[in-house]
Amino acid sequence: MDTEKILREQLDNVLDGRALQDLTEQAGEISGGLAEQFSLENILSATINGESIFDGQMMIESLTDLLVYELKSALIVCAEILAICIAVGLLKNLASSFGTKSVADISILVMVMLIIALCINSFRLAYDLALDSVSTMADTMAVLAPVLIGILVSTGAVTSGTILSPMIIGSVSGIALIIKAVILPALFTATVLALINCLTEKDYVKKLAKLLRSAAIAVTGLLTVILTGIISLQGLLTDASDGLLLNTAKYSLSTFIPIVGGFTSDTVELFLRCMSSIKSVVGVFGIVLLLLLILVPLLKIMAVAILYKLTAALAEPIAESRIADGLSDMGSCLISVASIMFFNALLFIMFITTIMRIGGS
Amino acid sequence: MGEIFTWAGDVFVIIISLAFFQILIPSSNLTKYLKFIFSLVILAVILDPLINLLPAE
């Protein structure tokens, strides 16, 4: 088809294919083969032929496979923790038959420390995963944003391009830095505090842990709202001024140039339309890429979180309630890590959709 | 970022050692005062980073 040829040619002209290829490969490594059906080429041909880009059956199957695999691999730690909990329960009931109470107390303390060590170990894994995925998403955005902005400028939205480019790139690296340097460490600390709290009979740091956790989530939510608000408002404004510019150009082309002016104006319009469908294709590609990058770490962390909540529920009847509380808090902290990653991805997706919306594709 | 981990480590160590201590001390009339003093120590360790923020004089 003719439009297909034009689109492909223009895509080759405006895009540095290699950078995007690298991104796809990286996403493929992380998401385990899911990325292949979402290559730029596939999305482009689906757009041209008007097909759906999602193969629902396959998506659902690979996602359930992934979830089951993660649940299985996290099951071992939970079984260990549960075994220690059973031992704690046994010791507590046998404590009266020992000579002094302090012997049983100290052995329970040591066991609780063992549980804490196991928990912190698996939290550390989730934490590293979250750090990694935030960095990868920020790197992906750092490659994608200039490409998208370049296409945006070539659709005629010059003002939007020049104003949004530094804003988006600045906020992407800024928010990645804040999440990596402040929010995730704060969550780590909150988890450690919540776990230490189950060592002692009296609550020493329970509220502190809760405060840190809710502060981390509140700061992320606030940052997301503020940045999205600013960028989409700015997008609306610059969009209006771009439209003005473009319409003036088209009008003056067709009016002031005799005879060929009408054709030239139509050609310019066709070119701009083509560019804006390319912008949609690249934007959709970027969103899918970000989703794929976040999907697997999110599933892993959520699987571990679900299992910790389950262990807490199972440990409650046998072990002391403070251990069950600690495990449940640990699950909540993992869910918080997952939600912070999700907020981050949401913010980046909002940036891409803001760019896609400008210039009315 | 390093400081927040050091702080969390400090809180961790102080609570663990005081938990051991509370079990090991012989029970007497003074135990409840000791427990109060332990809580004060934990409070001091938690507030430690804030103390550094205060002006020097």
Word description of this protein:
The complex is a heterodimer of chains A (about 350) and B (about 55). Chain A is mainly α and about 350 residues long. Helix content of chain A is about 90%, strand content about 0%. Chain A has helices at about 1-15, 15-30, 40-50, 55-95, 100-155, 160-195, 205-255, 260-320, 320-355. The longest helix of chain A is centred in the last third of the chain and has 58 residues, at about 260-320. Chain B has one domain (about 1-55). In chain B, about 80% of the residues lie in helices and about 0% in strands. In chain B, α1 runs antiparallel to α2 (about 30-55). Chain B starts with a helix and ends with a helix. Chains A and B meet through α5 and α6 of A and α1 and α2 of B.
Task: Fill in the keyword field for this structure.
A: 361 residues, mainly alpha, B: 57 residues, 81% helix
Spans of at least 5 consecutive residues with low confidence of chain A: none
The secondary-structure element order of chain A is HHHHHHHHH
For the sheet with most strands of chain A, the description reads: none
Q: What is the SS-derived class of chain A?
A: mainly alpha
SS element count, helices of chain B: 2
Q: Distance between termini of chain A?
A: 21 Å
Number of strands of chain A: 0
Integer count of domains of chain A: 1
Strand content of chain B: under 5%
Describe, in short, the structure shown.
The complex is a heterodimer of chains A (361) and B (57). By secondary structure, chain A is mainly α. Chain A has helices at 2-14, 17-31, 40-49, 56-94, 101-154, 158-196, 206-256, 261-318, 321-357.
